[in-house]
Amino acid sequence: MGKTEDGARAFRVPLHWLFILAGATSGIAFGILSVGLPVYALKLGASAAETGFLRAATGLGMLIAVLPAGMAVDRFGVRRVFFLASAANAASVALCALAASPETLAFAMMGEAFTRAFVFAALASAFLHALPLIGLHRAGWNKAAISLGISFFGPFLGGALMWGLPFGGVFAIAAVMMCSANLPLRFIPVPEAAQREEHRRSIASRFAERRASLASLFRSPGVPTCLAAETLLTAVFASFATFIVVLAVTERGLAAMEAAWIAGVEGAAYIATSFFAGTWIQRFAFPVALGVGTAVIVPSLAGLAFAEGFLLLFVFATTLGLGIGLLTLVVTMRAGTLPGAKGEISSLFMTATGLGGMVGPAFAGAIAAAFGTPAVFLSFMPLFVALLAVTAIRARAPRISSLIPSEEK
């Protein structure tokens, strides 16, 4: 840790601001693409169903990459992986601009998502490594900064750029934004790459060690619960963005602008909670912290299902974002206190994130088709209650006495 501390003192900009800059810049790049690529797909003649397939292709590309990305970060180092991955991501974005059909665009988007997984894995690994210096109460800042770029600045910038630039120019700016995140990362103390002896070991021996290490991680107190929570949170977050608009416009008769406000306030509440609630949630024992977040989320989901007017939907969307932010803090704090290789840890939690992002909207779509849009929000409630019940039962044997388990303090 000595080199890390010296590196932190050598550069006078606070470490957490460097991570905010790197995360927000990367998030803006993806936010631009999240607006530009679907519109470009429609320009190429893609149907609504094909546009959904393109989004699924990006989710699949990222999910495939997360575990190899973590291994690459631990073996080759954060800076090298981030630099090469951001360059490869820029090349994939260029291929998107050159795509002549929805089919070729799907392959290019899968490549973009694959390389983006390496970028985010490197950034998450660096953040977890530096968390003891940054402070555990700031555990949610990296995700919040990325979300700020993806949810707000990126889409707004992408929409503005599409007014005056061709798609090639829009994609080029996104690629430059992704590569520019290398600049703040140069001043962030990061884990060293594996020693030369590590590179000489056989692939089979390295995979065997990884398998044993992952098994050990799964046995750590609270980790299975946190992985389940991360999957569930991402599923709700991804489903909300789609189905709250459908609910507000088609079921409640609200205007599109009102639906956009409801969708936006949930993301704003999540980001604000991630930035400012860390010190408060850190005071609670692990099961209690999980219970606090669940106690906010479950009534919010019920409220969204039954609320009629704009004001109530707005309030319940706000409290849902607050609850998701609280549980995300709990999960990230637990990840930050785990011993072991940070690339491996970050990739494990990113796998849960990717799984939730893929399974959640599909599950919600099936529920909406069978029982109606309000049932989407009700369907997630028993899953959160079950997660809390399992955590409470396991906590009777006092292995998880606090957010940082006692054996690791």
UniProtKB/TrEMBL annotation:
Transmembrane segments: 17-41, 53-74, 81-101, 113-132, 144-163, 227-247, 284-304, 310-333, 345-369, 375-393
SUPFAM superfamilies: MFS general substrate transporter (SSF103473)
Keywords, sorted A to Z: Membrane, Transmembrane, Transmembrane helix, Transport
Entries under PROSITE patterns matching the protein: MFS
Record's subcellular location: Membrane
InterPro entries linked to this entry: MFS (IPR011701), MFS_dom (IPR020846), MFS_trans_sf (IPR036259), MFS_Vesicular_Transporter (IPR050930)
The organism of origin for this protein: Rhodomicrobium vannielii (strain ATCC 17100 / DSM 162 / LMG 4299 / NCIMB 10020 / ATH 3.1.1)
Highest taxon, organism lineage: Bacteria
Bilayer disposition of the protein: Multi-pass membrane protein
Major facilitator superfamily (MFS) profile domain: residues covered: 15-399
GO cellular component, one term: membrane
Single GO molecular function: transmembrane transporter activity
Protein name: Major facilitator superfamily MFS_1
Signal peptide residues on this chain, from the entry's feature table: none
Pfam family, one: MFS_1
PANTHER family: GH10249P (PTHR23506)
